[in-house]
Amino acid sequence: MRINRRNFIKTGAIATSGVFMHSSILGCSSPTNEGVQLEEYFGSFQNPPMDSKVFVRWWWNGNRLNKDEILRELDVMKSAGIGGVEINPIAFPPSTDPAGYEALTIFEDKWLDMLETALKGAKEREIVCDMIVGSGWPFGGEFLKKEEQTQLVTVDIIELEENKKYTFSTDELLARVNPDFHSKNKDVFKDLIMVRLVPASSDEFVSGEDLLNTVTENKLIVNVPEGKYLLYCVIKLTGYMNVINGSPGAAGPVLNHYNKAAVANYLERISGYINGKVGNMGNYIRAMFCDSMELEGANWNDDLPDEFEKRRGYSILPYLPFLLKKIGQMGNPLADQLGIKLPEEVTEKLGRINLDYYKTRLELFKERFITTFNDWCHTNGVKSRMQAYGRGMHPLEASMEIDIPECETWLFKEVGRDYPDIGLEGRAPLMCNKYVSSAAALIGKKEVSCEEITNTSMVFMATLENIKVAGDQSNISGVNHSVLHGFNYSPLNTEFPGWIRYGTFFNERNTWWPYFSLWSGYKARISNLLQNATPLANVAILQPLTDLWLKFGPQRDPFPQKRYPDYQNNLWEAVHQNGGGCNYVSEKIINESDFENGAIKYNSRSYNYLLLPEIETLDLQTVQSLSDFAEAGGKIVFIGEKPFKSTDFLNQESDDALVKEKIEALMKQGKNSIFIYPAPQNEVINWYKGLQQTLGIKPYVTFSKPQKFLEHSCYQLGDTRMFLIANTGLSEHISVTAEFDVPSGFYPWVWNPETGEKLMHPVNNKNNRINLELPKATSIIIVFENNDNGEIYFSPKQNTEGVLIAGPWQLKLQHINGNMETMELETLKDLVEMEETIHFAGTVLYEKTFQVENKQPQFIDLGNVQGVSECTLNGENLGTRWYGAHLYDISGSVKEGKNLLSVKITTITGNYLKGQTENKVAQNWTRHQEYYPMGLLGPVKII
Question: What is the extent of the structural domain holding 645?
Fold first, then answer.
């Protein structure tokens, strides 16, 4: 056992232990919630404060701004339940009419007047304000000097014939290097920094002959000896990348994030302008935000070789040409590149050097950018908010440095529909979500922010039900603060649909906007609870990041080209789908932890089980930490194989031998603590169920049938446990028995995030066992309270029987363009299937008279509904359904004899815009999209 191993304790709010003890329910408050009663949480849940409500990314399209419009949009957003904005100046959308509005330059006087109007207007309305650093991403500007611009070194390799003389001009060599970047800057500075002549193959590493100092009058002469040779040309590109979608005044080349002085100058320029105009930033701005670090392969600063040698103990320069790759868009390395052929053992050594090269860049990025950004924010009285992942940052550890770490959740058509068990396809949350939420848990951050409902593939086609499912998946991944992507600054006098930069058309001109507040209120209550609760986890997962980097190189999170192993992104899902809870950890976190009473303890987190999926490579210190953890009674699971090598280059042979030796000793030492478990093959959920049962890992809730769309997270709320459970599928009703790990004397209460009410859930024989009914796209929050006196929650089972209400149906269509028409349908069908309605958008009133005799029905089930429904029976409004089962209680309004049923369906706008072939904005988004179903499809039944 070791205690007090860490040299320091991370600052921040301290989270409660990941291991929940029954005694904590019976009287011990968690550190974050000490003295807070459940009634107080419920009161806040009923009326969430502004910082619990959804925020929006407020795109200031092209900075074509007007003070009256700024204030009008703030009022629109507040009335819709939006609690905060992220002011985000961005390039004007292509194919869009600016309608005579002037394009302002960021940080010039006119623009600063608009900023002041927005900041003060938001404050008057109690709307929280964040602001992006600069514009677009990654940030930069036309004003940057050459030495402040982003740098990249890459390689060009030329095959040379033997016994031949070549003459190259340096201009010719530089011109050969022209990577296909996603966002090219027009002015690129190129420097030839290394030229090596090497044999095309070798039995050992050879650095080659350095020819750079032979260049005279911009000419390089190469005399090739006998045999095949390659000419390696290392080129430094400066200012190669243009800010993606930067607005006037902050477009141009990207900043060099490895240059501390350049970063500080850039940030201080911004605070100087803002503080000079509105006073102290902290009086108006909650947080400054850094968007995606898509740096297109940035990997250099002029002092990097010196820093490498100082930190790693040897020079990188002899090896540099052989570490570099030709790159394509977003810095992704290109496959099948020409290069020297070397034995596997030499390639292995180069891989370790490349790992040291990457570690050095991670350290420099943290020290020179993240720390500088944090210090600047705090000096100016604001928080830092950042998407701290990408090739320049550790995907887990970097988020621990940020005040409000942020991830991203996307909306694709596949979300909520069947998807493969292994991989990323069909998931709304990306892998970065679990890294970021794990980082927040480890360091004790209250907020896990998310760029949410990011949407480029089904813009205008999204329903509120689609949005809910993606948002529920986001919450399950650990998110508790939503920044929607996004609200477009767009005056009402612009051509429909207005100025659209990206997104899900969160806008008052959207057909379903009148119902948006139903979702935003739902989301605010969930966020409020999760921000006040502590996620529980007793399983830690050490991702094989080192092996991933060694095998495939650093990846572009959140969209990696390669994964290792294939199921690495799905482990956390399987743990939660089986009723458990987990966090990802890193070797650094393990090595800074204490081990006692069978647990890894880091700050206030505690884990009894550590999973290592197919990890081959470990640092020597980590191997020792595993031994200490096992000695303290912890459980270690090597999935697929056990580690057998180190990360070291300088002492590779001896350190590899030590890793093997220590791992073998560990296996003998911990017969009851060390397990080798076969890796999953084609699916992960049942595989983890088997692992959980084999090791005796006790879940927080046991589902009678774990399944893909049944997702769960468990939290500690004050002195009790809270469960968020969701059916994130768009088609199937889920019926399962759920048995919760809570003591006797506590009973399940449903806290309804739609209404703010709570009802007691009926139990099945025991206080902790319930029959759970979850219609499609439906979630439930269960809080265990120590009383059993209250109104009973009712959730009807799926009923496939009932009496069909057959056609004909009378339809009244109110089109978004003002047209009205009527029609009759003998049989309900998708409006997209009919030529006359395929391009409809608006509201459709379906009416039908049906007969009731003798037995009075209790419900009417509308069946498949694509849109928002409002149901009226005999003139009595029965309510609104915007997701899930469109089931209405008719027991108080149905009568014997004739009954008039009226169902109003509000559709999406997308199918209409797809038909607007002359509308450039509409066609820009919808021409590649499929039509989306809409209307009342039924079958409609009385039950």
Answer: 536-695
Question: Does residue 660 form part of some domain?
Answer: yes
The crossing angle, in degrees rounded to 10, of helices 109-124 and 67-79 is 30
The predicted structure's pLDDT at residue 799: 80
Decide: 744 and 784 in contact? Cβ < 8 Å: no
The CATH number for 922's domain is: 2.60.120.260
Region 894-902 average pLDDT: 95
Helix, strand, or coil (residue 597): coil
- Give the model confidence (pLDDT) of 211-266 as tens digits: 999 999 999 999 999 999 999 999 999 999 999 999 999 999 999 999 999 999 99
Q: Supply the DSSP string of 262-312, one letter for each residue.
A: HHHHHHHHHHHHHHHHHS-GGGT-SEEEE-----TT----TTHHHHHHHHH
The two three-digit tokens of residue 129, written as one number: 């304000």
Kindly state whether residue 139 falls inside one of the protein's structural domains: no
Query: Which segments within 164-212 are labelled E, that is strand?
Result: 165-169, 189-199, 209-210
Residues 507 and 583 grouped into a single domain: no
Residue 105: CB partners within 8 Å, gap ≥ 6? Answer: 63, 111, 248, 249
Count how many domains the chain has: 5
Tokens (6 digits) for 909: 């706008």
Q: Are the C-beta atoms of residues 256 and 99 closer than 8 Å to each other?
A: no
CA angle 911, 921, 425 (to 5 degrees): 60
Burial 271-302 (b: 16+ CB within 10 A, else e): bebbeebbeebeebbbbbbbbbbbbbbbbbbe
Half-sphere exposure of 306 (CA within 13 A, CB side): 3
Rounded distance, CA 29 to CA 785, Å? 14
| Opening angle at CA 421, ends 417 and 427, nearest 5 | 50
**pLDDT per residue over 691-704, tens digit each?**
999 999 999 999 99
